[in-house]
Amino acid sequence: xxxxxxAAPAPQTPPRSAREVRVARAPRGLPVPGDFTVERAPLPxxxxxxxxxxxSHFLVFPGLRTLLGxxxxxxxxxxxxxxxxxxxxxxxxxxxxPDGAGARPGDTVRHLLGWRDWALVPxxxxxxxxxxxxxxxxxxxxxxxxxxxxxxxxxxRPGDTVLVTGAAGAVGSLxxxxxxxxxxxxxxxxxxxxxKAERLTAELGYDAVVPRGxxxxxxxxxxxxxxxxxxxxDTVGGEQLAAAVGAARQGARFALVGxxxxxxxxxxxxxxxxxxxxxxxxxxxxxSVRGYAGGDHPEVEAEWTExxxxxxxxxxxxxxxxxxxxxGRAPHxxxxxxxxxxxxxxxxxx
Length: 350
Fold this sequence. Notes:
The chain contains 10 helices and 15 strands. The protein is globular and about 65 Å long. Strands 3, 4, 5, 6, 7, 14 and 15 form a 7-stranded mixed beta sheet that branches. Helix content is 25%, strand content 25%. The longest helix is centred in the last third of the chain and has 14 residues, at 300-313. By secondary structure, the chain is α/β, with parallel strands linked by helices. The protein has 2 domains: 17-141 and 319-349, Medium-chain alcohol dehydrogenases, catalytic domain (Quinone Oxidoreductase, Chain A, domain 1), CATH 3.90.180.10; 144-296, 3-Layer(aba) Sandwich (Rossmann fold), CATH 3.40.50. It comes from Actinacidiphila alni. InterPro entries: ADH-like_C, ADH_N_2, ER, GroES-like_sf, MDR_fam, NAD(P)-bd_dom_sf. This is Enoyl reductase (ER) domain-containing protein. Residues 1-22 are annotated as: Disordered. GO terms for molecular function: oxidoreductase activity, acting on the CH-CH group of donors, NAD or NADP as acceptor.
């Protein structure tokens, strides 16, 4: 394992207030920048068991749409109401820490109090980064669910044809690469953007991209995979899941890690994604369909981090992401992400 990321801490004088992004009003349909506001909040000195962290980067993830819509039944995160500060994965530097906190000034940590430039974080909710990944920002990658799904629920076998829906998203842009490294013979992805399709094949090793929004998706999939698919890593659901059922080979394995077709629908609140699929074909083809929940596989995160770090250092995988500078731009990033304007993960550098 690599040496810790922390070095001799540089003295810093914390400000008396921090900037944070709050919900200004409940979104009507899909969120727009005006639903959020950047405000200043007092930044007291850390109390017992607290770390003062200067955030360097935080992740913008589409699941916030569900939290804003309030349909959080079964979701292990609280809803977001007007006046609440947004949250999510972040990395940053510890500036102040009490004795015995498990972290010290200068350490780089990961925590869930993103969407602000400074954060007071309970020490037991911070992970000190140990340098397993060569760049701290890579700790915000959303590859753990894809890796877990492709090794636990729908294990990739040598020569498999794998379809990844939503291939240009934070999960999908890593999933195709992971499938290849696990032995897939052919990797297909879906996207609704021609420029994203070009990047998927030119940069991330996808063999073909199935376009969305150009006629029936099932027809386009049949053209790209005339012999069918063995594995589905699905982040979308809806029409694309239904088409994958039609393309399934005997004994195909489906792993569902997202349902963006419903989650990001303007006429829904983010907590449902109905899909009509051919259950008869599931039966006669012996297709397994399983949803991936990280909490069911607690060992995956550490395993993924080790393999991800080794693959990054060997140049065998890329971490596709778009970095947006300035917390003042943060209210625009979630609507942009939902609109499909970013490739890979969307990260704010406050």
